[in-house]
Amino acid sequence: METGKEQQGVVRFLTAGGVGGREIHCCMSAVYGKHSMSCLRVLEWHKRFREGRVSLQDDARPGQAHCAITLAVTAEVDGLVQRNR
Fold first, then answer.
1. What is the pTM of this model?
2. Mean pLDDT of all residues in the chain?
3. How confident is the model at residue 60, as a pLDDT?
4. Is 24 within 8 Å of 42 (Cβ atoms)?
5. Is 2 left (phi over 0), alpha (psi -120 to 50) or beta?
């Protein structure tokens, strides 16, 4: 199964070639079948690439959790658990 990033790359490539969003979706549906991105997602990415976007990464969403797992954090959590069983 193809990943979202791969399909976004296809949308980016075809958009650069002047192919329309609905036509891109039609082609992707024929190739990827049930694993294809939805028409709405294809149109969203098509619009982003037309507007000059080059990155395949999703935008960060407000309130999205940021986590950093380090040895120090792991040790601190382990210590809290051990002290408060």
1. 0.65
2. 87
3. 67
4. yes
5. beta
CA dist., res. 16 & res. 39, Å (int)? 18
DSSP codes joined into one string, 17-70? TT--HHHHHHHHHHHHGGGSPPHHHHHHHHHHHHTT----SPPPPTT-------
Closest by CA position to 11, among listed 26, 24, 29 = 24
Tell me the per-residue pLDDT of 20-52, one tens digit each, with 9 for 90 and over.
Answer: 999 999 999 999 999 999 999 999 999 999 999
Residue with tokens 């709405």: 40
Half-sphere exposure of 19 (CA within 13 A, CB side): 18
Give me the phi and psi of 25, to 5 degrees please: -60, -40
- Model pLDDT, residue 31: 93
> What are 10's two structure tokens?
């296809």
Please state, in angstroms and rounded to a whole number, the distance separating the CA atoms of residues 9 and 51.
15
